From TrEMBL:
Residues 4-158 form the NADPH-dependent FMN reductase-like domain. This is NADPH-dependent FMN reductase. It comes from the Archaea. GO terms for molecular function: FMN binding; oxidoreductase activity. One of its GO terms (cellular component) is cytosol. Gene3D superfamilies: 3.40.50.360. Pfam families: FMN_red (PF03358). Belongs to the SsuE family. Isf subfamily.
Length: 192
């Protein structure tokens, strides 16, 4: 039996990011549900802003290539996306833009097509980043990712976590874990 492999990351590079905390909770849910989960920090994959001239001259930036390989080697994703001006963060969009670019010898959208993703967000605001998730879901759907229906947006994020990074509200914690559990369970059916 193939064990599902899930890559988990936040669309924020901030060291004290609420979304990074959320990703870890969802990752623990996915692990409990039997998946192998790799949690990464996009700060370790910093890449320039997408530029068609740069791409033509030098190809994919080395960190985009590294991340693409990592994504290809996983069956699915857990993504916690901050909401910037009612939409996806620049970091996350730029990451998707570079890694979605075609490479000779690879199928189109090699790291996205046929993958499964679970989404979540956290924000100090009242909507928890929910408006941004609408856009993230749409972007991923358009590049061939099956996004699971259950998603969570944590509002008042500056008050929501305890000192260990867990959500103070046990029900919320369980809802975030369920994002990971759902992706792990669906992948278990798809990859076995
Ligand atoms: C924000 N933030 C924000 N929050 C929100 O709920 N809706 C929004 O539209 C925006 N817009 C926005 C734009 C920009 C440029 C920044 C920098 C921030 C606040 C944002 O949710 C907050 O900074 C979070 O803490 C970001 O996520 P991390 O870094 O904590 O994961």
């Amino acid at each position: 039996m193939v064990k599902p492999k899930i890559l988990a990351f936040a669309g924020s590079t901030r060291s004290d990011s609420f979304n990074k905390k959320l990703v870890k909770i969802a990752a623990s849910g996915a692990k409990d549900a039997g998946a192998d989960v790799t949690v990464i920090d996009l700060r370790d994959f910093t890449m320039p802003l997408y530029d068609g001239d740069l791409e033509q001259k030098e190809g994919l930036p080395s960190n985009a290539r590294k991340l693409k390989d990592l994504m290809i080697s996983h069956h699915g994703f857990l993504i916690s996306s901050p909401e910037y001006n009612s939409s996806i963060s620049g970091v996350l969009k730029n990451t998707i833009d570079w890694t979605s670019r075609p490479t000779e010898g690879e199928p189109p959208l090699a790291c996205f097509q046929g993958k499964v993703a679970g989404l979540m967000s956290a924000s100090p605001g009242a909507l928890g980043g929910l408006r941004g998730l609408v856009h993230v879901r749409s972007i991923l759907g358009n590049i061939g990712v099956l996004v699971t229906p259950h998603q969570v947006a944590i509002s008042k994020a500056h008050e929501a976590f305890d000192a260990d990074g867990a959500l103070k509200d046990k029900k919320q914690e369980d809802q975030v874990k369920k994002v990971g559990i759902d992706v792990a369970h669906l992948l278990a059916k798809l990859v076995s």
